[in-house]
Amino acid sequence: MKTNYLTRSLLCSAIALMVSACASTNELSSSSNSHPPLINPSSITMGNPDSYGIDQGEIEDIRAAMKAAVDGEFIPGALILVGNNDNIGLIESVGTQAPGDNTPIDKDTIFRIYSMTKPIISVATMTMVEDGLISLDDPVGKYIPEFSDLEVINRETGEISKAQNVMTVRHLITHKSGLIQEIFSPNTELGRLYRENVPYGQLTANEMARAIGSLPVFFEPGTAWHYGHSTDTLGAVLEVAAGKTLDVVLKERIFDPLGMDETTFWVPNGKAGRVAEPIHGEMEDNTIPGVLLSGGGGLNSTTEDYVRFAQMLLNDGEYRGQRIIDKSTLDLMLEKHITEDVSREFFFYGPNGDWGLGFHLQPTDGNNANGPHNFGWRGIGGTIFVVDKANDFFMIYMEQKRGGPRGAPFDNNVAQRMIYEAMAD
Q1: H or E segment at 117?
Q2: Whole-prediction pTM
Q3: Which part of the chain has CATH 3.40.710.10?
Q4: pLDDT in tens, 338-352
Q5: Which CATH class is domain 8-117+245-424?
Q6: Mind listing the pLDDT tens digit for each residue in 28-49?
């Protein structure tokens, strides 16, 4: 499992990049997405941590750091898992699902995964590209007419003018659309317009996309990277292209074939006792259905379920005989899309790393930007998943937090660092 080129110093450098926060669309070989539901055995088959290069002392160190975060009342509990296509080499959990709750965190605890929804939407998009229902080069206005007459706002003067570039589906999936989110641009004129004209959570995905489409963009599509409502808008595009609501699209194309039967936009009341809650602040009640199916951050999931998605990605698009996307499609998703003509002014990792079709791309050798990289993404509630094909493993870390004090002895960044260090020793 260990590889010689992964030294502790290089990996620490790579993880520091995480903390500091295109190929043309040729015909993709179409994979059938009419999958029969997967018989649903557990995705957690335990193996030996030693085969991953993680010894008992390192496991105890990881667990101690996790427990320190719980004892310091940063979080009620957390879970970390490392696996590959053979088995799960490490699964450790500490603490409870919620403050004042005696129920331990485990693989069946339900977490709000927030932006870990985005990679799922991106994969669903690419299955529809394979099936000829969408092209990455389609104008967004083909599906959401409000984007047909795009305007750009001057960030310094507030002047609005007609856009010169057409926003495409590719721009949405790579966050180069010019769409922002008020939380990431609170002091801008466009941030104010979002705040006043896009009541998040009160509109359907299509209604929200139409509201966003009626506003100017932050920059010409394709010229910069900026996090925002791109994937929410992409979810609306999928609904229009499929003629189905987003929950049905995901159920048919991702969840049923993978057996992810506990990954949903709303948690059934009968499962409410399994939902993780934070110590500090409050999170929305995810057992009360709302009108918005947010492609950008609306899903709830368990570690057991997300293992299936991560293992599928590690295995070139297939999970236990169920092919979700072709290997060539996944390879396309892992190409770098922040080219030299694209501004990194708003990129979370500055000059380092890159972005694919829906995933972060971070080098595992901090001194070699063109070398092997991992991919994945994180959620604002503290969750993260990382897939490292070069080193044949994936990592999932789950916690639930909302604000609170900084400086936790364990979080999603520390999780990555300690796992890479353990495997490099």
Answers
A1: helix 117-130
A2: 0.91
A3: 8-117+245-424
A4: 999 999 999 999 898
A5: alpha beta
A6: 444 444 556 555 688 889 999 9
Distance of CA 150 to the CA centre of its chain: 27
Q: Using the CB atoms, write b or e for 254-265: b if 16+ within 10 Å.
A: bbbbbbbbbbbb
Structure tokens at 105: 């965190």
pLDDT digits (tens, 9 = 90+) for 69-89: 999 999 999 999 999 999 999
H helix runs in 214-285, sequence order: 230-242, 246-250, 256-258
| Distance, CA of 110 to CA of 269 (rounded, Å) | 12
Q: In terms of C-beta density within 10 A (0-12 exposed, 13-18 middle, 19 or more buried), how is residue 290 classed?
A: middle
**Residue 186: how many other CB atoms lie within 10 Å:** 11
CB-CB neighbours of 90 under 10 Å: 21
Summarize the confidence of residues 18-28 as an average pLDDT.
40
| C-alpha torsion angle, residues 129, 133, 136, 137 (rounded to 10) | 150
CA angle 91, 96, 101 (to 5 degrees): 160
Starting at the edge strand found earlier in the chain, the sheet holding 88-95 runs: 88-95, 77-83, 393-399, 384-388, 373-378, 360-363, 354-355
How far is 168 from 172, CA to CA, in rounded Å?
7
Whether 238 contacts 124, CB under 8 Å:
yes
- State the DSSP code for 178: S
Query: How deeply is 245 buried, as exposed, middle or buried, from its count of CB atoms within 10 A (0-12, 13-18, 19+)?
Result: middle
Residue listed under structure tokens 């899309």:
337
Answer yes or no: are the C-beta atoms of 169 and 138 closer than 8 Å: yes
One-letter amino acid for residue 33 of the chain: N
What is the chain's Cα-based Rg?
Answer: 21
3-class secondary structure, 311: helix
pLDDT at 3 over 60: no
Q: Round to the nearest angstrom and report the end-to-end CA distance of the chain.
A: 12
